[in-house]
Structure formats: structure tokens, C-alpha cells
Amino acid sequence: MTTLTSTTDTVTRDALAVLQPGFSGTTAPDWLLRRVGEGLSSVGLFGRNIETPEQLAALTAQLRAERDDVLVAIDEEGGDVTRLEVRHGSSFPGNLALGAVDDLELTRSVAQELGRRLAECGVNLNWAPSADVNSNPDNPVIGVRSFGADPHLVARHTAAYVEGLQAAGVAACTKHFPGHGDTAVDSHHALPRIDVGLDTLYARELVPFRAAIAAGSKSVMSAHILLPALDPDRPATLSPQILTGLLREELGYDGLIVTDGMEMQAISSTYGIERGSVLAIAAGADAICVGGGLDDEDTVLRLRDALVAAVRTGELPEERLADAAARVRALASWTQRARGAVPEPGAAAQEGTAPGTGVASDIGLVAARRAVRVTGTGEPLTGPAYVAAFTPVANIAVGDDTPWGIAAELARILPGTGTDTYNDGTEAPAAAVLSAAGDRRVVAVVRDAHRHTWMTDALDTLIAERPDTVVVEMGVPQAPPRGALYVTTQGAARVCGRAAAEAVTGTGPAPVPPAG
User: Fold this and answer.
1) Phi then psi dihedrals of residue 234, to 5 deg
2) How high is the mean pLDDT of the chain?
3) Over 80: is that where the pLDDT of 332 sits?
4) Which pLDDT value is given to residue 5?
């Protein structure tokens, strides 16, 4: 009886260890602290948990008072997907901007400075970077989160990002294996399917993941996508052929495999989160990400008990669960060692550089400025303008709460500038813009205009009526250019808005030519 109880306790602790749950609030609730004390090894943070860097540091200190090696994870890609700066917009451009500049040292420096800021707040696992090759321009969920459409460009920047982030003592989590770039469906809402052959998958999707593995990425996140060429029955997150056969055995990856959010509809509406979690661990995943939408103790207990029950019935081998938990604890140990190896804040700091790194403290703005491209022969803005923000429905990864655009920065440079927001439900948006603008020059700000007919129709009407219209594309740019000036930022981070405002007014620093 003693042996059985001991084994049961071990299985229960291992089941807790493989979970990465979220929670509500800006301080750790009692139930979460209690479960950390019982063996929960990881916690996921979202925008709802963060107000200021000081508050975040206090929150992570709360968690570490219960367990010093707890993994504190966050979805902080920079660019459009930010949790650290969800209320104001990111100080760093996203991947597409970095890919457009194509300067590996710049990418490495941006990732290192982002990692330094996370580490300073006590975060030690970042669910980034996205290594997806954005081969489908109509992709509704990747887009500017990708470094680009060229697999080899994506590969070299993925590796540089991993190196920079981990140099700051923060573990990278390269995603979304084996590649989410050729989808037309958002896995938050349904199960995407990629119907391409093995030759294409190996020559395109897998190239960046090979580079990430070679760069030492401490973790990899699986995608909730169906790839019949690899497994016709189960999505990657639940597929032994993909997680164990391909990622572990063929590609030789020995780090932590983390699932994408299990409450996403691609899994939850088909398998349910309990069944899905058991299948994921059995397939070769080591950590279950849950908490973007489910953030309570009941979820943690349901998943823990589902894993324990699966071990008792033999559906999930106890050795597989133990191996997964051991990999989680191994990564936690690495973060402890890395934390001790990174210089303390303020160490060896020089004016204009981030503490202890030698990286420019404004490296995000530097990168955003370098990513801006301006075409057209129109004159720069010299007086108050009218900014029309054509706003699509945000995907869940980005969220609706993070501000974007150039209106605030343009109003700072050109007082008297006005703005309003227009969406798919706005009646005759072009006419409404012209009426509101009056004599002021129109600046139309769009996001992935090529995916939204209502946007392109409104732009055509505006430009026909007002040929001096400036168009700022803050999503994935597409040919041909539109407007008297066509400005592309490769993303909608706060620094991208500032860089675009400087570009259309001619008030920024002299442009730096692309690398190479």
C-alpha cells in the first residue's frame, strides 16, 4: 500500500508538472500558489496579468517564493503580439519587419533586448519566435508574425532570434511546428489543413525548425494543424508520427515540446481539452499550454486528473508522463543557471545601451525605422492631416486591446491632425472619410488590405477623389503600391507607427539601406 501511494503521488506531481496554466489577476491567486507548492512547474502569463514592469516583477517574485525554479512563460513576440506592453503597443517591431531589414545582428540584438526586459521582470520562457514561413498571403493568423515567405530567410532569422533571446537567459519556444504558414484558417477557431506533399514540407516548412534546433532552441511549440502527408488522422499536437517520429527521432530534437493552447477550437471542439491533453502527452508533447481563455483552478484539476486516470488505465504510459515532467524540470534548471550567468541590471551599462548587453536601449525603434519602405512621388505631409484607420477584426493571437496605427504620433508631429476608425460595417467609408477630412490631406492606414475587399474598395475611391492620399500599410504589403505615398511598416507595433509618422513627414533620421 505504501508503494502504491508513493507511485500515485509521483504520477500526480508529474501530471501537475506538465501543465502550463494561466490565471486571472495581477497577483497570484491562492489556488495557484498552492498548486505550485504541490508540483506545478510552469505558469503562463497573458495581457490580463500585466500592468507595469514593477507589478510583473512582484508577481513573478510571488511565484518564486513558492518554487524558485518555476517556469514563468509568456507570449511576447514583440510587434503585433505583445503581452508586456499590451496597453500601449510594443517597443519592438515584429518578425516581418526584421525579415524585411534582413540584418541578422539586428534581429539578434532585438531579441536579446526583449529577453533582457522579460528576464528583469522574472519571465524565463517566451513562447516565441514564430518560425512559420508565410507562404500563403491570405493567412489570417500568421502574416506579420512571420519573418517572411522565403524559408531560408525565415531560417536564419529564427536562429538569430533564438540566440539573442537565450543570451538574455530566457528560453525560446520556436513555433508552430511543423509550420502554420500555409493555412487559410485560424486554429483558434477551427482545424486548419495543409494539403502539400512531403517534398514541399521538407523544403519549406521544416527548414526554419532545423535552424532553430541547430541554434539550441530550448523548446518548440506544436501546431494544431492537420498535415495529411505526415499524419492523415490527427493534428500535429496529437500526432506521434509528427512529434515523436519527425521532431524527436528524425530531426533529433531533445528539448521541451510545448503544445499550443489546448482550449483553441482546433482541439477543444474536436477532442475536448482533457482528451486532447492525454493524446498530446502520449504523442510526445511534454507541456500542455492552457489558460489563454481558461484561467481557473478547475481547469488545472481536470487536466491533472485526466492525465492521472490515463496512466491508471494504461492509455498513457507512466514512463512517458515521467519523461515529459523530467524535461519540464530540466528546462527549469537551465533557466536557473542562465539567470545566474546573465549580468545584473545596470552592470557594465554605457549611455544609450541596455544594461550589461552592449545593445542599444532603443534598438526596437532603430529596427522599426529601418523596416519602413516609402514609394511614390507625393510630397511629405507638412500640415495637419486626417488619419482614417481602416480596422479589420483582430485575430485572437493579437487581440483587440492593443492600440495600433500612426494617428497619435502624427498628431504629435503635426498638431491639429484628426482621426477616426472605420470598419467593414461602416456605410460608404470613403465618403465618410472625405467628409470628415475636409481640406486636410488624407492618410489611410490599413492592415492587410489585400485580404479585405471593403478596404481596397475604399482606398480606390479615396485615391480617385484625392490623388494626394497617403496610404500606410501596417500588415503584409502587396503590390502594386497605392496612393501618392505608399508606406509599408511590416507590422503595427507602436514603434512601427512612430517610424511611419516620421517617414510621411520627413522628420525621421536618414534611412538606412537594407543589409546586403
Assistant:
1) -125, 145
2) 92
3) yes
4) 42
Cα 54 from Cα 56, distance rounded (Å): 5
Per-residue pLDDT band for 484 (boundaries 50, 70, 90) equals very high
Catalytic residue check, 231: no
CB 31 within 8 A of CB 58: no
Mark whether 199 is an active-site residue.
no
Going by pLDDT thresholds of 50, 70 and 90, the confidence category of residue 348 is: very low
For 19-41, b/e burial (b = at least 16 CB within 10 A) is bbbbbeeeebeeebbebbeebbb
Sequence-separated (6 or more) residues with CB below 8 Å from residue 283: 234, 237, 238, 239, 240, 242, 243, 244
CA nearest to 195, candidates 182, 208, 209: 182
Contact 94, 404 (CB under 8 A): no
**DSSP bridge pairs for 287:** 258
The 10s digit of each residue's pLDDT in 491-502 is 999 999 999 999
Of these residues, 231, 260, 286, 448, which one is catalytic? 260
Indicate which residue of 157, 188, 224, 452 is catalytic: 188
Question: Parallel, antiparallel, or unpaired for β 485-488 and 373-375?
Answer: antiparallel
